[in-house]
Amino acid sequence: MPSSPAAPRVVAVVVAYNRRDLLAEVLEALAGQTQPLARVVVVDNASTDDSADVARTAGELVDLVELPRNTGGAGGFAAGMAVALADHRPDWLWLMDDDTVPTPTALAELLGAVAGSDAVVAGSRVEWFDGTEHPMNTPRPKPFASAAERAAADARGAMPIRSTSFVSMLVRTDVVREVGLPIADYFIWNDDFEYSTRALRGRRGLHVPASVVVHKTRVLGSTDADPGHRFYYEVRNKLWMFRRSASLAPWEKALYGGSSVLRWLRTGIRSGDRATLADGWRRGWRDGTRFRPRPNADALAGLGRASDAVAAVEAS
């Protein structure tokens, strides 16, 4: 009898910052996947609690990368993905935050959906504590997907997507090497929108509802909930994306740009602190139009092993 094909080698990348108890829960859930992981790369973003100790004592599955400064979610994922590529020979990377708790079959369902297909990205259904679908992590369906593509996805219990979230994103590593890493200077917000659309431009991705993770945020909020001072990153990063990234076609930039303006208006109308939002908008507009993100090799310099891995990936 012919031997069955080897299971793909999957390395999870978890970015951690000051949520030790949740990180312990995430690592336990990753170790308990029905489809075993090859390794789990935990990037500790200079936490001031003992998150690093939690990862350090979690067992041989975990490879801890301790950063001397907080690089945000964007920098953490760039560093962790680079280390995974450099040291662990993955076929796929599975990306998540330290408050993302996967159900036992989450990875198996993702891999089952992409097996034998040309999909290069897959995302999970993201729920809150009560089982409600989390509005913060809703994927964007692929506009104008052909009937054949929709039918092929439906046969796998999935939906064609144009973007997905770093709260459980599976991405094929040959595509990572082709399109590069997330842009570290985004720091937080829209880094996953830019990266997933970059990875999916001209390629296919799937949303897989049977793969379920629980995003344990404090509140159940959508992307137009009042962000306070973080509104600066929303504005700056969207401007960087629409003006400088090649992740979207021109017509998509017009479509998603208009959607973003409407979302900003809704955020302002609902806000209880419009002065803070106005300040964030002014600073975000200034920096988003006057400056551009630095190359990752510069933004993530001085981080030892992580910097070396980032430089190697970016150079290739």
From TrEMBL:
InterPro entries in the record: Glyco_trans_2-like, Nucleotide-diphossugar_trans
Residue span, Glycosyltransferase 2-like domain: 13-151
Involved pathway(s): Cell wall biogenesis; cell wall polysaccharide biosynthesis
Record carries keyword Disulfide bond: no
Segments crossing the lipid bilayer: none
Protein's UniProt keywords contain Transmembrane: no
Taxonomic superkingdom: Bacteria
Matching Pfam families: Glycos_transf_2
Keyword annotations: Glycosyltransferase, Transferase
Family as reported in the entry's similarity comment: Belongs to the glycosyltransferase 2 family.
Name of the featured protein: Glycosyltransferase
